[in-house]
Write a structure and sequence with these properties.
With 156 residues, this protein is of the alpha+beta class. The protein has one domain. It is built from one helix and four strands. The protein is elongated and about 115 Å long. It starts with 21 loop residues before the first helix and ends in a 5-residue tail after the last strand.
Length: 156
């Protein structure tokens, strides 16, 4: 006697020819999701570092520009700049025009005080003004700080 197959029954597919199981598909999706998340995080971190670098470069330029401006002022006028503060977004260039957009996220302040310093290796004391320019971000964190001593002019 021969066993007859019922016509509606299909033969079982070969083990090697069947598709992915649900578990294998979920694992593949999970691995793909982790790879996409890792790439996204790397790109985001790169953009953040680029923004911070741009902000620090702008801060150095802003500090140098203000210190250069103060260095050209008359010695007797320097104390009038003590306490000067330009909040983020309000920095003005030396010619009075608004600073470029890259300066919108930073501010700068000036501190000046009278100082008497000893010259290294001698007993000579020099009277002058100690200038400090700080550039800070919107959170108040100081990004750059420059200091310079300007001696009192002779006969001053």
């Amino acid at each position: 006697m021969y066993a007859h197959r019922h016509p509606s029954r299909r033969p079982r597919p070969n083990r090697h020819s069947r598709g992915f199981t649900l578990l294998e598909s979920l694992m593949a999706i999970g691995i793909l999701l982790m790879v996409v998340m890792a790439v996204t995080l790397a790109v985001t971190a790169g953009q953040q570092h680029a923004f911070e670098a741009q902000q620090r470069i702008a801060a150095v330029i802003a500090a140098e520009e203000k210190m250069g401006f103060l260095s050209t002022q008359a010695y007797s006028d320097l104390m009038g700049w003590n306490g000067h503060d330009e909040s983020p977004g309000s920095i003005v260039a030396m010619d009075g025009s608004a600073a470029p957009g890259s300066f919108d996220q930073i501010g700068r302040r000036v501190q000046i005080h009278q100082d008497l310093i000893n010259l290294p290796g001698s007993d000579v004391r020099v009277l002058g003004r100690h200038l400090r320019v700080q550039v800070y971000d919107r959170t108040g964190e100081v990004l750059v700080e420059l200091e310079r001593f300007i001696p009192e002019p002779a006969g001053g």
